[in-house]
Design brief:
Blueprint: H1 9-28, H2 35-58, H3 63-93
Helix pairs in contact: 2-3
Length: 108
Amino acid sequence: MDGQTTLTGFLAIYLFLLAAFTGYEVISRVPAILHTPLMSGSNFIHGIVVVGALYALLHATTMVEQVIGFLGVLFGAANAAGGYVVTVRMLRMFHSGKPSKTAPELRR
Protein backbone atom coordinates (compact mmCIF):
# COMPACT_ATOMS: atom_id res chain seq x y z
CA MET A 1 0.00 0.00 0.00
CA ASP A 2 1.16 3.50 -0.72
CA GLY A 3 -0.41 5.04 2.41
CA GLN A 4 -2.23 7.72 0.47
CA THR A 5 -5.98 8.30 0.70
CA THR A 6 -7.98 9.75 -2.15
CA LEU A 7 -10.79 12.09 -1.17
CA THR A 8 -13.66 11.44 -3.56
CA GLY A 9 -16.63 13.74 -4.01
CA PHE A 10 -19.04 11.68 -1.92
CA LEU A 11 -16.52 11.24 0.88
CA ALA A 12 -15.84 15.00 0.91
CA ILE A 13 -19.57 15.76 1.10
CA TYR A 14 -20.01 13.17 3.84
CA LEU A 15 -17.16 14.67 5.90
CA PHE A 16 -18.50 18.20 5.41
CA LEU A 17 -22.01 17.22 6.52
CA LEU A 18 -20.66 15.28 9.48
CA ALA A 19 -18.52 18.25 10.56
CA ALA A 20 -21.43 20.68 10.10
CA PHE A 21 -23.81 18.50 12.14
CA THR A 22 -21.23 17.94 14.89
CA GLY A 23 -20.41 21.65 15.05
CA TYR A 24 -24.08 22.59 15.27
CA GLU A 25 -24.71 20.09 18.06
CA VAL A 26 -21.67 21.18 20.06
CA ILE A 27 -22.36 24.91 19.74
CA SER A 28 -26.07 24.58 20.51
CA ARG A 29 -25.27 22.94 23.86
CA VAL A 30 -22.92 25.70 25.07
CA PRO A 31 -24.39 27.82 27.88
CA ALA A 32 -24.81 31.54 27.14
CA ILE A 33 -22.18 32.51 29.72
CA LEU A 34 -19.50 30.64 27.75
CA HIS A 35 -20.16 32.23 24.35
CA THR A 36 -17.52 34.97 24.79
CA PRO A 37 -14.64 32.51 25.44
CA LEU A 38 -16.00 30.36 22.63
CA MET A 39 -15.88 33.33 20.24
CA SER A 40 -12.26 33.99 21.22
CA GLY A 41 -11.32 30.40 20.40
CA SER A 42 -13.28 30.62 17.17
CA ASN A 43 -11.35 33.74 16.17
CA PHE A 44 -8.10 31.85 16.70
CA ILE A 45 -9.32 29.06 14.43
CA HIS A 46 -10.31 31.59 11.76
CA GLY A 47 -6.78 32.95 11.89
CA ILE A 48 -5.49 29.47 11.11
CA VAL A 49 -7.99 29.26 8.23
CA VAL A 50 -6.60 32.51 6.79
CA VAL A 51 -3.05 31.13 7.00
CA GLY A 52 -4.16 27.94 5.23
CA ALA A 53 -5.97 29.93 2.54
CA LEU A 54 -2.86 32.08 2.02
CA TYR A 55 -0.78 28.94 1.64
CA ALA A 56 -3.26 27.57 -0.90
CA LEU A 57 -3.30 30.88 -2.76
CA LEU A 58 0.49 31.09 -2.92
CA HIS A 59 0.73 27.57 -4.35
CA ALA A 60 -2.16 27.96 -6.83
CA THR A 61 -1.22 27.32 -10.44
CA THR A 62 -4.49 27.71 -12.33
CA MET A 63 -6.91 30.63 -12.40
CA VAL A 64 -9.63 28.56 -10.67
CA GLU A 65 -7.26 27.71 -7.81
CA GLN A 66 -6.26 31.37 -7.49
CA VAL A 67 -9.89 32.49 -7.33
CA ILE A 68 -10.74 29.87 -4.71
CA GLY A 69 -7.64 30.80 -2.70
CA PHE A 70 -8.46 34.51 -2.90
CA LEU A 71 -12.05 33.90 -1.79
CA GLY A 72 -10.77 31.75 1.07
CA VAL A 73 -8.47 34.53 2.25
CA LEU A 74 -11.17 37.16 1.81
CA PHE A 75 -13.92 35.26 3.63
CA GLY A 76 -11.59 33.96 6.34
CA ALA A 77 -10.26 37.45 7.08
CA ALA A 78 -13.77 38.92 7.10
CA ASN A 79 -14.96 36.17 9.44
CA ALA A 80 -12.02 36.67 11.82
CA ALA A 81 -12.44 40.46 11.86
CA GLY A 82 -16.19 40.14 12.40
CA GLY A 83 -15.58 37.70 15.22
CA TYR A 84 -13.34 40.16 17.00
CA VAL A 85 -15.92 42.93 16.60
CA VAL A 86 -18.61 40.67 18.07
CA THR A 87 -16.30 39.65 20.93
CA VAL A 88 -15.62 43.29 21.84
CA ARG A 89 -19.35 44.05 21.75
CA MET A 90 -20.07 41.06 23.98
CA LEU A 91 -17.37 42.12 26.43
CA ARG A 92 -18.87 45.64 26.57
CA MET A 93 -22.11 44.09 27.79
CA PHE A 94 -20.28 42.91 30.92
CA HIS A 95 -18.37 46.17 31.41
CA SER A 96 -19.17 47.92 34.71
CA GLY A 97 -18.61 51.45 33.42
CA LYS A 98 -15.56 52.15 35.60
CA PRO A 99 -12.31 52.94 33.75
CA SER A 100 -10.02 49.97 33.54
CA LYS A 101 -6.26 49.94 33.11
CA THR A 102 -6.26 46.43 31.68
CA ALA A 103 -8.76 46.85 28.85
CA PRO A 104 -8.59 50.40 27.44
CA GLU A 105 -10.36 49.43 24.20
CA LEU A 106 -13.53 48.67 26.14
CA ARG A 107 -13.89 52.20 27.56
CA ARG A 108 -15.95 53.59 24.70
